[in-house]
Amino acid sequence: MAEQDAMMEEVTSAMGDMQMPEPGGMEGRPNNAQVSPSRRHLLTGNGSASSPLRSIEAKPSRPLDAVIAAGPAAPPIEFPSPKFERGRRDHVLVYVEHTRTHQVAKNVLFRDYSREYGETPEKALSRVKQAYWPMPYKERINTIMGHVEICVVLTRCAMDCSDEDGTSDHSPSDDSSSGEEDDVVFQVTDRHVAVKVNYSRRMERYRGRHAENPLQEIAAMQLIGNEHPHVMGVIEVLFDGSNLNVVMPYAGSGDLFQMLQDSQERGTGFSEPEARYWFRQIMDGVKHLHNKGVCHRDLSPENVMIDSNNSLIIDMGMAIRVPYSDPQHPNRVVDITKGTAKRMIAPQGTCGKLPYMSPEIYRNRTPFDGGAVDVWTCGTILFCMVTGNRSYSRPHDSDAQYYWMTHGLSRLLHDWNIELTSECVHLLKNMLQVDPRLRLTLDEVIHHPWFHHHDAPPAHTISPPPPRRPVSGKK
């Protein structure tokens, strides 16, 4: 515990002492997505259409009524303190099996055991079982707080990895390592990870001024765990004295945003069975978050990674914990594991991406339900899937597409010449209810008749060949 507190102080100190790298952004992924020009013309009229499915308005009471009645809106519950270990970046000796040679890998990230065992960094290297080698030809992906780099996983050799006769074509003169360091040899594996590097100086600059909080994201990921197939977990977190490195599994097939762009270029959306295949996974992941008492707040196609035929929800930087009434103290709130009735959340600021943001988060004037805002964003994702079009620019009636998505969806689809099943239209309409009370709950979405039909795995699985091993240092 004392070690964790000491490292937390170091992180805070480093935030003020670090030189901030140059900022950057991800091209092609603006916060405000625009509707396709060919679809900007919209019809007039109320766009109402009869549905064989039961109307939400017909129900005299709704689940949100109980949430409102549970007590006054409360701030989110704090996450447990994040846990991280000391890390280090350094050169290490690597054996490359397919070339049967040794080489020096640079800027390798690994856990540093030197303080824990009172050893020199060189000697402590012998305790490292796994390390992460940034792939030099893979461009960094810029983030708000730093960047993401794709790394090859290195594992310790049981003994010096060399030819069967015990000789090695690496000599001590190849680098400046000592003989003691040469005894520690790693080997290249076929596994890859994504390392989210948070710059300490940038974390300090944005602390309290930006909805994304790296420390809170780490705490959220550690709370959520690694066990769910559709939510990205964390392998380990390493503070190297300058940056906070979050090591996560690597999803090598891109993200849902790219899949949607590809479908838009073809001029079509996903078929309903294909959309249902992906959307079922997304909703399963969201259910896991909600069962842990966590509201994501920033669900979007960019935050759904694809790994072959599997999807993973990522980016918990804006996630919050939902408050519940404390059964022992009616005026207090606790987390989902100790509480009874879910409570509304006091306004926390406008956050997330505008094209997927719920109207109540955009307005930021009234308390909101954590589950309802995630259902809304999922509704916009489903809209993009089945129409082959982007969402609105902002969730306000002055935005034409937002108005028709929420007040005249059937008419909008007719104008775009898009045919969807009545179940799909009903699901979209009721996930995109402006009034959170009338919006479907997560359980109502999962048990909606649209999900009773069959799924269809993607016709063209996104599975690029595995990345080349970075043995030459060239792109």
UniProtKB/TrEMBL annotation:
GO BP, sorted A to Z: intracellular signal transduction
Pfam families the UniProt entry points to: Pkinase
Keywords: ATP-binding, Kinase, Nucleotide-binding, Serine/threonine-protein kinase, Transferase
A single GO cellular-component term on record: cytoplasm
Coiled-coil ranges per UniProt: none
Ranges for region Disordered: 1-56, 162-183, 456-475
Domain Protein kinase: 170-451
MF-aspect GO terms: ATP binding; protein serine/threonine kinase activity
InterPro entries in the record: Prot_kinase_dom (IPR000719), Tyr_kinase_AS (IPR008266)
Protein name in UniProt: Serine/threonine protein kinase
Lineage of the organism: Eukaryota, Sar, Stramenopiles, Ochrophyta, Bacillariophyta
